[in-house]
Amino acid sequence: QVQLVESGGGLVQAGGSLRLSCAASGLTFSTRAMGWFRQAPGKEREFVSAINWSGDITYYGDSVKGRFTISRDNAKNMVSLQMNSLKPEDTAVYYCAAGAYSRGTYYGRDYEYWGQGTQVTVSS
């Protein structure tokens, strides 16, 4: 059974940092792009970051570029998102997603599996 389990969310003050992790099982992890998306209440799901199968090509949404860093460890079937200089507008549920392709994309439609999400709340 496919599982993507996010962890590391929580409450943090503006300017602080959090590291999210996603543990994958039941799927071919090392051949897929992986991504992070987020969704705030009443808002559409937003692209945050993506990483290709080998971890050498990354993409970031404009709102997080320069503050967030995505990485992966194929030996551990894990992908992480280091979140620095957090802002209140970063508050959302963050979702880990496994791509249907080996190269990362910006579009949710290109991801085959999704985690349950982890809440990130940034106070001002």
- H/E order of the elements? EEEEEEEEEEE
Major sheet description: 7 strands, mixed
- How many helices? The count is 0
The number of E-state strands comes to 11
The fraction of residues in strands falls at: over 45%
Give the averaged pLDDT, no decimals.
Answer: 97
Shape, please?
Answer: globular
* First and last CA, distance: 40 Å
Q: Catalogue the unreliable spans.
A: none
**Share in helix:** under 10%
- Structural Rg: 13 Å
Structural class: mainly beta
Secondary-structure topology with pairs:
Elements lengths: L2 E5 L2 E4 L4 E8 L8 E6 L6 E6 L6 E3 L7 E6 L4 E6 L8 E8 L11 E4 L3 E6 L1
Parallel strand pairs: 2-11
Antiparallel strand pairs: 1-3, 3-8, 4-5, 4-9, 5-6, 7-8, 9-10, 9-11
Tag the structure with descriptive keywords.
124 residues, mainly beta, four-stranded antiparallel beta sheet, 11 strands, 50% strand, globular
Note down, in words, how this protein is organized.
There is one protein chain. The chain has 124 residues and is an all-beta fold. The strands form two sheets. Strands 2, 4, 5, 6, 9, 10 and 11 form a seven-stranded mixed beta sheet that branches. The chain has a four-stranded antiparallel beta sheet with strand order 1-3-8-7, with no helix packed on it.
Summarize the structure.
With 124 residues, the protein is an all-beta fold. The chain has no helices and eleven strands. Strands 2, 4, 5, 6, 9, 10 and 11 form a seven-stranded mixed beta sheet that branches. A four-stranded antiparallel beta sheet has the order 1-3-8-7, with no helix packed on it.
